[in-house]
Amino acid sequence: MLPDPLHPALVHFPLALAGLVPLFVIGAIVAMRRGVAPRRAWSLVVAMMALLAGSSVLAVETGEDEEEVVEEVVDHDIIHVHEERAEMFRNIALATLVLALVGLAAGKVGWVGRGSASGMAFLLAGLAWGVGESGGELVYVHGAANAYIEQSGTALPAPEDHDDAGEDDHDDEGADDDD
C-alpha cells in the first residue's frame, strides 16, 4: 500500500539524486581519464540522470495532485513559489537527461553532450536546494501538513511566527540568573 499523501514520500528521491549525480559525473570523468571508454564510463551517469528525471516528474505530479488539499491551510501564492521551483527543476532534469544521452555518442558530439550534462548536473544540485527549502518552508513554517492532520480530526496548532529566531522559547529549570 502506498503512503497517503504520496508527495512527501517521493520528493526526497530527486533531491538526494541531485546531490549524488555530480559525484557520478566526477567519477565518470576520472574513469575516462584513466582509459575507460567514454560510453562505458558515462553509462552510469545516464542511468542516474534517468532516475533523477523520472523521480522529479513523479514528485511534481504528486505535488500537483495534493495542491488543492494543502490550499485549505496554506495560501496559494506560497504554494506557487514551491511549484514553480519544482517545475523548473523537473524541466532542467529532463533536458539534462537528453544531454546525458547525447553524451553516449562517439566523438565531438558525445564530448559536447557530456560536458553540457556535467554542468547542468551541478546546476541541478543547486536548484534542488531551493526546491527543498521552499517545500520545507511549506511544511514547517506554514503548516502544510495540517491539511492532512485535520482530515483525521487531530489538528496540530498552527505554527507561530517567531521574531526572535534562534532563541529558546522555554525557561531552563534550575538555571541561575545571577551568572
Q: What features would you describe in this structure?
A:
The chain has 179 residues and is mostly helical. It has one domain (7-152). 69% of the residues lie in helices and 0% in strands. The chain has six helices and no strands. The chain has helices at residues 7-10, 12-33, 38-70, 76-102, 107-140, 146-149. Helix 2 (12-33) runs antiparallel to helix 3, helix 2 (12-33) packs antiparallel against helix 5 and helix 4 (76-102) packs antiparallel against helix 5 (107-140). It is elongated. Residues 164-175 have low confidence and may be disordered.
Output the keywords.
179 residues; mainly alpha; 6 helices
Number of domains: 1
Helix-strand category:
mainly alpha
Helicity, as a percent range: 55-70%
Give, in order, the helices and strands.
Answer: HHHHHH
| Terminal Cα span | 56 Å
User: How much strand?
Assistant: under 5%
The profile of the biggest β sheet is:
none
- Shape designation: elongated
Number of helices: 6
Q: How many strand units?
A: 0
Uncertain residue ranges:
164-175
Radius of gyration: 21 Å
Mean pLDDT: 88
What's this entry about, in short?
The protein is built from 6 helices and no strands. The protein has helices at residues 7-10, 12-33, 38-70, 76-102, 107-140, 146-149.
Q: What's the topology here?
A:
Blueprint: H1 7-10, H2 12-33, H3 38-70, H4 76-102, H5 107-140, H6 146-149
